[in-house]
Structures are given as structure tokens and as C-alpha cells.
Amino acid sequence: MLAFIGGLGWQETLVILLIVLLLFGAKRLPELARSLGHGIREFRKSVKEISEEPKDSDSGPSDKPS
């Protein structure tokens, strides 16, 4: 998923999570995770909509000189 996380061990990951917990607090973490999940969902939805748009070459303006 995220290539730069592949080099981290469990100790480094634990330290990062503890720092995040100290910075944001236990009450705020679920809210942050929820908003992050919502943002990722919206991004995937937008990418899916863009990739499903029909690519019709005859409907747009023509680049051919007449």
C-alpha cells in the first residue's frame, strides 16, 4: 500500500503511534480516523467516476483543419 512504510519495524510503528496519541489525545483519534476514511472514500469514488466516463472522440471539437 504505502511503499515508505515497508522499512519500518514494529518498534518504530509503535513509537509513531504513541507520539500521535500524545499529540492529538485519545478523544480526538477516532474523529481523525473517521475523517481520513471519509476522505479516502471520496477520493476513490472520484477516481472511479473519472475512469468510467465514456471516451467519445466524435463528440468533442475537431483538431483537423478543414
Please describe the structure with a list of short key phrases separated by commas or semicolons.
single chain; 66 residues; mainly alpha; 2 helices; 59% helix; elongated
What does this structure look like?
59% of the residues lie in helices and 0% in strands. The protein is mostly helical and 66 residues long.
Could you give a quick summary of the protein structure above?
This protein is mainly α.
| Alpha carbon gap, first and last residue | 49 Å
Looking at the chains present, what oligomeric state does this protein adopt?
A: single chain
Hey, roughly how much beta strand do the residues contain? under 5%
Fraction in helix: 55-70%
How many strands in all?
Answer: 0
Shape: elongated
The helix-strand sequence is HH
Main sheet properties: none
- Summed up, the helix count is 2
Determine the structural class based on helices, strands and strand pairing.
mainly alpha
Kindly provide the radius of gyration, computed on alpha-carbon positions and rounded to a whole number of angstroms: 22 Å
Poorly predicted segments? none
Average the pLDDT over all residues and give the rounded result.
80
